[in-house]
């Protein structure tokens, strides 16, 4: 069995510093106004019983990615390790993948005019490094690794902690797992205060 990359985000450890967002923009030269990785600030409840939550967001690198199926030129593909990537030389900017993604994780790069999203900093992975967002997380909230390796920290967390995924009803089988997520905050009926690619 080969590698299957996944990410666990422990919301109990997230301090909302946005260092992951800044590191991602710097590492991947992401233009102003769009994000591969962002932290939603969410508000649930009604006054006076209101709660605020942080929800770091990125491409979920789904096991069954709807974005791959709709690409008419095969620019979006899934590697054997599960990472969903875009070949910018093939992408025609048709936005089908953007419409198909239930997580709002894709956008059109305003400079290149192609679709773009998180790719786990794939060049860093090939060099044996962690994604920039994981490397810079000061709270240690982000854990990345091989889900198929039972000795990896990511596999241990998924096996032993109560994890949740965003929008499981889509059957995309997202591979970004959250620990400590408030059910109201991960459902689509929340009030979004600060968003990413919206």
The fraction of residues in strands falls at 15-25%
In whole angstroms, how far apart are the ends? Answer: 38 Å
CATH class of the domain at 5-60 and 119-194: Alpha Beta
Strand tally is: 11
Given as residue ranges, the uncertain stretches (5+ residues, pLDDT < 50) are 189-198
From the alpha carbons, calculate the radius of gyration and give it in angstroms.
Answer: 16 Å
Order of helices and strands: EHEEHEEHEEHHEHEEHE
Main sheet properties:
4 strands, mixed
Helix and strand arrangement:
Elements: E1 5-10, H1 19-28, E2 38-46, E3 49-57, H2 66-70, E4 76-78, E5 84-86, H3 96-100, E6 107-108, E7 115-116, H4 122-126, H5 132-136, E8 142-146, H6 153-160, E9 163-164, E10 176-179, H7 183-186, E11 191-194
Parallel strand pairs: 1-10
Antiparallel strand pairs: 1-8, 2-3, 2-11, 4-5, 6-7, 9-10
